[in-house]
From TrEMBL:
Key words, A-Z: ATP-binding, FAD, Flavoprotein, FMN, Kinase, Multifunctional enzyme, Nucleotide-binding, Nucleotidyltransferase, Transferase
EC number assigned by the record: 2.7.1.26, 2.7.7.2
Pathways involved: Cofactor biosynthesis; FAD biosynthesis; FAD from FMN: step 1/1; Cofactor biosynthesis; FMN biosynthesis; FMN from riboflavin (ATP route): step 1/1
Catalysis: reaction(s): riboflavin + ATP = FMN + ADP + H(+); FMN + ATP + H(+) = FAD + diphosphate
InterPro entries associated with the record: FAD_synthase (IPR015864), Riboflavin_kinase (IPR023468), Riboflavin_kinase_bac (IPR002606), Riboflavin_kinase_bac/euk (IPR015865), Riboflavin_kinase_dom_sf (IPR023465), Rossmann-like_a/b/a_fold (IPR014729)
Protein name, as recorded: Riboflavin biosynthesis protein
Biological role stated in the UniProt entry: Catalyzes the phosphorylation of riboflavin to FMN followed by the adenylation of FMN to FAD.
Similarity remark: Belongs to the ribF family.
Pfam families: FAD_syn, Flavokinase
Riboflavin kinase domain mapped to chain residues: 183-308
Amino acid sequence: MVIIEGHQAIPDLSNAVVTSGTFDGVHFGHQKILKKIVKTAQELNGKSVVLTFWPHPRFVLFPEEKTLKLLTTFEEKAKLLEEVGIDYLVKVEFTKAFSQLSSETFIQEMLVEQLKTKKLIIGYDHRFGKNRTGSFEYLKENSGRFGFEVEEIPRQDIDDVGVSSTKIRQALFHGEVDLAAEYLGRKYSISGTVVKGKKIGTELGFPTANIQVAEDFKLIPKDGAYAVSVMVNDRWHKGMLNVGVRPTVGGLHRVIETHLFDFDQQIYDQPIQVEFIQHLRNEKKFDSLEELKFQLEKDKTTALSLLKEY
């Protein structure tokens, strides 16, 4: 898949089959549209193109809001789109100035002049342009003038999947990582860098890799303990992870720390990826470190049982 920054020249694409949107999570609902794009492009002997906006429009239009958390970073989204089979990903910088473009200008400049769109496929109720005035009906009425076909994925087709980014976020906020995985079609994951901690886990016999996630907008599941699968040095390892403030040791800040089973390498400053398999328990304050250690032993036994198939 070729990634094109919005300011870069777009190659001359023959029979471009295009869709647009944020596609956060690239979940089952999104995949229905994306697979249609790929299939149609193959039938027309053309190229499949996803036009996406970054940063997320809400970050630009409502900067005072800090509540929106995303399921995917741009890099994660690009990787998932490539796996679906998309040929070109056009990354458009979303700015306040861009948000003021009328739907007519957006269509003429982006879809007609730059992408030379042969066919546009969108999900139901998809809108674009200033104040989201561009609609499927508007596109349909003017398709002859624009010079491309337009197709809408019916509402029932999308609703039958029963998936939305909002549903996935809610599942993760409640620690239901297994439900989120069903919606996504894969395990929910986070990536980051291993940083040094206070080595309290080492003292308890459970050394942990503290994970620093670079993007503050990335959604981290509900505080608590989880069974996880961990990628380090291109190899997957079984483990358990805790998200939270560590109240037993007087922690004040939310941290992410994972213990890898049967692993004793130094991995500071190295990249790490974690897939959430199952929520084990909520975070709680224990009366002593001995009580915490006893609980960690129980967590490990439960996690190993859950991770047998992994």
